[in-house]
From TrEMBL:
Protein name as catalogued: GTR9 protein
Chief place of localization: membrane
Classification via InterPro entries: GLUT, MFS_dom, MFS_sugar_transport-like, MFS_trans_sf
Positions of the Major facilitator superfamily (MFS) profile domain: 1-191
Annotated GO MF terms: D-glucose transmembrane transporter activity
Lineage, uppermost ranks: Eukaryota, Metazoa, Chordata, Craniata, Vertebrata
Positions of transmembrane segments: 6-24, 113-136, 143-165, 171-190
An example Gene Ontology CC term for this record: plasma membrane
Keywords: Membrane, Transmembrane, Transmembrane helix
Amino acid sequence: LWNVLLSFSGLVALIQLLFLPFFPESPPYLLLQKEDKAGCLKAMKQLWGEENYHTEFDDLMKEKAITKGTKIMNVVELLRERSVYPQLCTMLLLVLSLQLCGLSATANLQESIIPYVSLGVSISELISIIFCSSIIDRFGRRMLLCGGYLLMALILALLETSLLLSDRFPWLRYCSVILIFLFIIAYGIGP
């Protein structure tokens, strides 16, 4: 029943996708990056209620005052900044550990091809990190989450179909590998 187990993550992503539009945008994002004070207050009221958001808002205003004049770095600038190397190394270790999750094994490929699939998984993760970090400021977290979950649900449906038909059409195994790469990219960009 591995295919049911694989489909379960798609079901969870679909449920999250359906409920995500009903949640407000992140208050720190609205205030610090979009400079939308009214939107920030509205989101905080919705998240914490009428009376409980004032302390959080004051903290955000202090953070805004501290970070005033600080430039948001792009990917290249971030890689040049030595002070973030420990965090980058930790993130890379976490991302590279995705190779051990067994997602590549679902494609039912020949053993000689599996190292190339693992390499493709790593490249897909790297692409998603670079792509996400360069577009998150432009589109916002909510858009990336919605789009990522929608893509993941679609890719998992296609992956399930290709895996079910791979015994009759052996070339679909390679399509499954491509879908796995796309799933990892969609996951990295969104959730």
